[in-house]
Prior knowledge:
7-stranded antiparallel β-sheet; globular; mainly beta; about 45% strand
Amino acid sequence: MGTGFDAFRGTVSDYDWETRDGFTFNNVSIDGTGEHKGNDYRIWLKNENMVGWLNNEVHATILDLVCLIDTENGEPVTNPNYRQGQADAIVVLPAPEPFTTPKGLAAFGPRYAGLDQDYRPAAA
Length: 124
């Protein structure tokens, strides 16, 4: 597994969520701050953070772990516990290499989760 990295910093500008068919679905939008000002990060989840878009470009998908950390208290932000204006860091932990093989992707990749796209490893 590669080294995790601090991918983005910003504040929650919008979010919505619903529980349907036993799953929590959510969209969260984060407006960049500091060196990320003028950029945005959006995350879609189905219980877990499935896809992260940086400025509308896919940045990370499952199998990578896309994690949010509240920068005011250092605590993880669990789904769907966001609040408007919350200052967050997005930390990405790259997938273990065996999961990115054809067999691993067939078992756990984005298409398995219903995403119509290929796995794209997060870029640091």
